[in-house]
Amino acid sequence: MRIRFTLWITLFIASLLVFAITACTPKKNVEKIRLSEVTRSIFYTPQYVALEKGFFTDEGLDVDLKTAWGGDKAMTALLSNSVDIALVGAETSIYVYTQGTNDPIINFAQLTQTDGTFLVAREKTEEFNWEQLKGAVFLGQRTGGMPQMVGEYVLKKHGIDPHHDLSLIQSIDFGNVPNAFASGTGDYVQLFEPTASIFEQEGIGHIVASFGEESGQVPYTTFMAKQSFLKEKPETIEKFVRGIYRGEQWVQNNEPKVIAEVVAPYFDDIDADTIAMVIERYKKQESFATNLLLTRDGWNHLQLMMKEANELSEEVPYETLVNTKMIDKVMKE
Asked: Could you give phi then psi for residue 137, rounded to 5 degrees?
């Protein structure tokens, strides 16, 4: 009986010691970061991996992700200080700068380095040729947005004037474009995944070309913040970049099916096989940025597309709106 009592006392004292040590151990400071993404998309897979795998948590960051459902809304949230960081098209930072601002929006890392849309045809053809679009009804994207500018750039590359050689529809809201095509509007449509693949599976349309492959590398979707925020919290941005970089590296080093299992919670209405198929397609055309570094060539290519779409009032130097210090440091670690 005395042995049992002694054992109980020993265990009790040990538990008190463990509690005391735990209580006295200083907790790692956790900093909250408010992040706004332009939309919810498999196109942003490395970001969801970083969240789901705890890469931000490892850096002491609590990232609160909100979906803006529109580039203008994401930028408005950033400008009004409702969020700290925005994931949106790099062109939006140029629009803000050319309109005049004392606190410019700085691009500090890119998540995607190609366009993420595909050309979907209503009718299936044995062999697709861009000439087939001439005279057709083309359901495009919002004027001034990256999808539409890339779309026009690719059409012109193939000798098609988007405003004269076909009937271009741009009046439909981004979220309603797929429904419009499914309802019978247009001969061709420019769509993101997974909608493009789902339409193909359901026989609504057929993927005939990739705008990402046709347009080449461009800082399509980037992480950006106010210049003042970067100056006030450079270490915070560095931690954020490190988390995203780990997410990107993990995506590069794992198979689509494995990646799909990790990001599935962010896409409740899409089955795992479709998610994996889309990820594989984006990996194959190198849409996910391989190192997050927004290059000078990419920046110049972006402005060329904007200029050809008549959306660039003045060119903005690379150094003015791009800061690569954080990603340079992280990549050298």
From this structure: -95, 120
Q: Is 285 helix (H, G, I), strand (E, B) or coil?
A: coil
Angle (CA) 229 234 240, round 5°: 95
- Topology alike, domains 31-114+218-332 and 117-215: yes
13 class by beta-carbon count within 10 Å (0-12 exposed, 13-18 middle, 19+ buried):
exposed
Q: Are 101 and 36 in contact (CB under 8 A)?
A: no
CA distance 118 to 43: 12
H or E element, residue 12: helix 2-24
Tokens found for residue 165: 């050689």
pLDDT in tens, the chain (333 residues): 444 445 445 544 544 444 444 444 444 588 999 999 999 999 999 999 999 999 999 999 999 999 999 889 999 999 999 999 999 999 999 999 999 999 999 999 999 999 999 999 999 988 999 999 999 999 988 888 889 999 999 999 999 999 999 999 988 887 889 999 999 999 999 999 999 999 999 999 999 999 999 999 999 999 999 999 999 999 999 999 999 999 999 999 999 999 999 999 999 999 999 999 999 999 999 999 988 999 999 999 999 999 999 999 899 999 999 999 999 999 998
Cβ neighbours of residue 75 closer than 8 Å, sequence gap 6 or more: 86, 88, 92, 95, 96, 105
Q: For 31-114+218-332, which CATH class?
A: alpha beta
Q: What is the pTM of this model?
A: 0.88
Structurally, at CATH architecture level, domain 117-215 sits in 3-Layer(aba) Sandwich (3.40)
Domain ranges for the chain, please list them: 31-114+218-332, 117-215
- Residue in the block written with tokens 């990996």: 283
Phi, psi of 305 (to 5 degrees): -65, -40
What sign does the CA torsion over 180, 182, 187, 189 have? positive
The tokens for 273 are 């096989």
CA-wise closest residue to 301 among 130, 150, 119, 145: 150
